[in-house]
Amino acid sequence: MRSANLRLSLPKRILDATPPRRIITGPRFTPVVQALPSIVPFVAPDEIERSRGQKFSVRLGANELTFGPSPRAVEAMQAAAATAWMYGDPKSHNLRQALADHHGVQPLNITVGEGIDGILCNLTHLLIGPGDKLVTTKGTYPTLNYFVAGKGGLLQTVPYGPDDRQDLPALLAKAWEVDAKVLYVVNPDNPSGSWHAEGKIESLIEGLPPGCLLLLDEAYHELGVDFDANAKVAVDDLRVLRLRTFSKAYGLAGARIGYALGAPEIIAAFDKIRNHFAISRVGQAGALAALLDQAYLHEVRERVRHARETLGSIAAQHGMRCLPSATNFVTMDCGKDGAFARLVLSELTERNVFVRMPGVPPLDRCIRVSCSSDEDLRIFSEALPGALKDAERKLGSK
Ligand SMILES: Cc1ncc(COP(=O)(O)O)c(C=O)c1O
Fold first, then answer.
1. Which atom of ligand 1 is nearest to the CA of 141?
2. What is the C-alpha to C-alpha distance for residues 149 and 134, in angstroms, rounded to an integer?
3. Ligand 1 center–CA 179 separation, angstroms
4. Does 247 lie in the same domain as 307?
5. What pLDDT was estimated at residue 12?
6. Looking only at Cα atoms, what is the longest distance across the chain?
7. Which residue has the higher pLDDT, 28 or 355?
8. Which pLDDT score, from 0 to 100, does residue 183 have?
9. What is the residue range of 128's domain?
10. Is the pLDDT score of 167 beyond 90?
11. What digits encode the pLDDT tens for the residues 335-386?
């Protein structure tokens, strides 16, 4: 049956003014979106499994906490599942109150979002318009870059320093040079695993140009070496916004809960533009229970530390070096260039071991492996020598 042409019901004056369109034109994307390249920045392990038609034996590439969340968080989410017919509380009241107690701040210092990623997106709504500049390290966690590009903002990058850390003095100099609205620093860093001691961040804040926000992504904070929930940066300081998540140390990546700690003026601005119902009731229940189980967090820290050591010895057995890590992954220097590391990665994939690698030099000489159980790391260590050997062979035959 042919559908009726609704256009014919339009008032005559509109019909006369607009000739019938024979060509389907599609939506009118914004000039910024039209100028963006079509890319899929993150190929998920699930997608790789689908395209290979095979499940990975171990999933060690997505910086997830393979040990899983606290059993109390699981119980809380199971109980909340039956209430999932209700929207989540748009203010995340109970979770924000508990986070405020945990950090010794007020709930008005905290906004909750759909992971740090959701907050990064919201932040670009707040601060980035066409031509606005954001300074970041070339090759650090890239999600913010896509959101900035989507707003027509301009990324200004600085390379990693010679010690594979984010180069704070160079970042600061760039922020002054380009009049950056945002300086994005990831501490501890992904993909290097490196970190900056507290004093360094404080002096970075003191040196910021006027009107530049330091966006401090602390996704791995709880796994750091000198873990202290109440790090010393003043929460009411208008020059800085800190980001934390339940995806890493708390093992709730699939629940999508992150939060920002900052001055009430900045936190309140998020309410103007955020998706108020983005957070699910199940996720809120899981995050709250996870936060209240600090004993489990300490157990996780211990297991991660043990796994970092195990990965260190596996790397050493094959003449590889691990970069120091304050995260739940270890970045292993394969000792050659990016082409070689890419071959090692693809050989590990062939052996059903999922790991990832940094995308750009100088860190693309490395592969990045998640901390995991002894059993998972045994599977990785059995696959590694063959992967290295075949990668060497393929490199030689190129
Ligand atoms: C530095 C960094 N920030 C943020 C995220 C994403 O966090 P979330 O799951 O809270 O969106 C990741 C995930 O890998 C990360 O490495």
1. 1
2. 10
3. 26
4. no
5. 83
6. 81
7. 355
8. 98
9. 71-292
10. yes
11. 999 999 999 999 999 999 999 999 999 999 999 999 999 999 999 999 999 9
* Residues 19-41, mean pLDDT to the nearest whole number: 81
The protein residue with its alpha carbon nearest to ligand 1, atom 7, reads 116
Residue 180: helix, strand or coil by DSSP?
Answer: coil
Q: Whole-angstrom Cα distance, residue 65 to residue 307?
A: 12
Query: Residues lining ligand 1, judged by CB closer than 6 Å?
Result: 63, 115-117, 141, 186, 190, 217, 219, 245, 247, 253, 258
Domain count, the chain: 2
Residues 81 and 220 occupy one common structural domain? yes
- Residue 127 included in any domain: yes
Point out the ligand 1 atom lying closest to the alpha carbon of residue 118: 11
**377 and 228 fall within a common domain:** no
Q: Is residue 21 part of a domain?
A: no
CB proximity list for 211: less than 8 A, separation 6 or greater: 179, 181
- Residue that terminates a domain, selected from 292, 321, 341: 292
Regarding whether 258 and 316 lie in a shared domain, the answer is: no
- Token representation of residue 316: 């050493």
Q: Identify the CATH number of the domain in which residue 161 sits.
A: 3.40.640.10
- What pLDDT was estimated at residue 227? 67
Atom of ligand 1 nearest to the CA of 186: 1
% residues pLDDT > 90 (the chain): 87
Residues 57, 89: one domain? no
Backbone angles phi, psi at 179, to 5 degrees: 55, 55
Helices 168-178, 198-207: inter-axial angle, 10-degree rounding: 20
